[in-house]
From TrEMBL:
Residues 53-74 are annotated as: Disordered. It comes from the Bacteria. This is Glyoxalase. Residues 4-128 form the VOC domain.
Length: 132
């Protein structure tokens, strides 16, 4: 396979707080590699997502000063095991900002909701009930 998506990294100024947020929200296993600099997230058992410190910027060989975010950001979709609205409520309690409540997307026959994490990363939670 060529030209396949391998990994997505979410930037954060506070990698330890981000790790705690995502562990609490989704129950993910997260490994510090190295601790406090880059954290590998293992949703569903495999590494497909990570957190990186805006200060360290590993593996960038020439780190730059962090820039303020503005405008649209990429969306990271997470397949959840229940209604996205339930996850959205927990995310908001943990400090996230709700972007939209759970709604049905007819074209893809599933439900979704979205938030900005406390560090400005947009997450969309996706769910399709198993009884379909």
């Amino acid at each position: 396979m060529v030209n396949t998506l391998v990994f997505v990294d979410l930037p954060t100024p506070d990698i330890e707080a981000s790790t705690a947020f995502y562990k609490e929200l989704f129950g993910w296993e997260i490994n510090g590699r190295p601790q406090g600099v880059f954290h590998e997230i293992l949703p569903g058992g495999g590494p497909t997502l990570g957190l990186w410190s805006e200060r360290e910027q590993v593996p960038d060989p020439s780190p730059r000063a962090p820039q303020p975010r503005s405008g649209f950001q990429p969306r990271t979709y997470i397949l959840v095991d229940g209604p996205p609205g339930e996850y959205l409520n927990r995310a908001v309690i943990l400090g996230a900002t709700a972007l939209w409540e759970q709604s049905y997307w007819e074209e893809f026959d599933g439900h979704h909701a979205s938030f900005l994490d406390p560090w400005g990363n947009q997450i969309v939670m996706w769910w399709r009930p198993a009884d379909r």
